[in-house]
Amino acid sequence: MQQTRQHILEILKEQNEATVDEIVDALSARIGEITAVTVRHHLEILRGDGLVSAPAVRRRTTPGRPQYIYALTDKALELFPNNYRTLAEELLLQIKRTLPPREVNVILEGVADVLASGLQVNDVPMPVRLNQVIDYLTQQGYNARWESTEQGYVLHMHNCPYHHLSGSHSELCEMDFHMLSSLLGGVVPRRLSRMAGGDESCAYLVPAPQSHSS
Description:
single chain; alpha+beta; Arc Repressor Mutant, subunit A; Muramoyl-pentapeptide Carboxypeptidase, domain 2; four-stranded antiparallel beta sheet; three-stranded antiparallel beta sheet; 9 helices; 7 strands
């Protein structure tokens, strides 16, 4: 990223929110004199990239012209270092050390139910439902797709959002399995492959609905 824009992101991270004039002052202390026009130009580029929110009016305690403040978006916050991976690893280890496997599974199934609750599955034909599920899974970072086969439908997940953990914590794969079943409206799929085992994708066979003859 261009250095001046990187500095602007860092300033907004440190100050939580700032006006153009405040950013100018902070930038000048870092890189030398810079104009408000230049700062506004960089802010517009950052807004276009989805990293800075639209300016909001700051409440004033004294009369005067309104002040417009800028802040980082959630997308921008992801650019800064975090320790989520280590935290998640330690939480899983502590849970598994403290609780018996059955209770660990109950906790992770509860997490799966919460994740699945983000999509309200309608009583629609399975291909339509699968499209809904694929859209939802892709939004969650799974990079999913499905295809029709003679045995039913095969759903592929080409990315695991927590692949750093699933290799040593197979319980997460079972959590995904439970979530997928919930997303499919209670239809239980059959696992065909898993990335944690070295396969190209986590694939599941979703049985085609049985037709009933009268």
